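User: Please predict the structure of the protein below. I'd like the answer in structure-token form so I can feed it into my own downstream comparison script.

Assistant: Understood. Taking the following sequence of 249 residues as input:
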Amino acid sequence: IAAQGKRGFGIHSPFVFNLVTQVIGKNKKQACFRHIEKQRSNLLKNQHIIVVTDLGSGGFVSKMPQRKIKEIANHSLKPPRQAQLLFRLVNHFQFKKILEIGTSLGITASYLAKGNPESKVITLEGCPEISKIAKNTFESLNLNNIELLTGEFSQTLPQVINSMETLDLVFFDGNHKKEPTVAYFNLCLQKKHNNSLFVFDDIHHNAEMELAWEQIKLNPEVKVTIDLFFMGLVFFKKELTKQHFKIRY
């Protein structure tokens, strides 16, 4: 495993070096960021109480089925720096067929959709009440390239996989347990191509996610992985030598 600094020093893979210097290490603000962050700010102030259906995501767990939107936002939304990296990845590679497993309140999907206006983002959410808020987020930002599907991932994910020819980018953020994470990965593998990118959130969240990440890295289809600590990037390019990188981000 190669551990490198965020500026790319010591990276001997030209592909990874370019990715680190041109995409991961850049943090240029885009005009759309301000609008999305305004929506985040609104969610973090929202006192409205909703009934949350917990489908066992393994993420933020509360025994209270009724929760304030601001509490959900505080615990579940990706920090701006991380969400904006997803925007840059979509923008750099010009991904068009994007799948997000775990919509939450819609902030990350908004960044994915803004990365390439010509893309189609399909995002999956288990909780109906949270889905309604995500839809409001998309409408407020005038995003017309997002399709939100609500229901258990065990049902909605196979439907999406069967309906799509290929997947350019998949963002896995719907579960923090090993078995479902690996199962979703294997399902999505059916539709990956040479230039696909799979991004796994919270790879060091708990012991199960650590195990899932190690198993994913061992898959023979996987060529290059980049561990950014908060998330992991998986590339399948056949022309690359199998390598695993750790980058300080």
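That's the full token string. The first strand starts at residue 2 and ends at 4.
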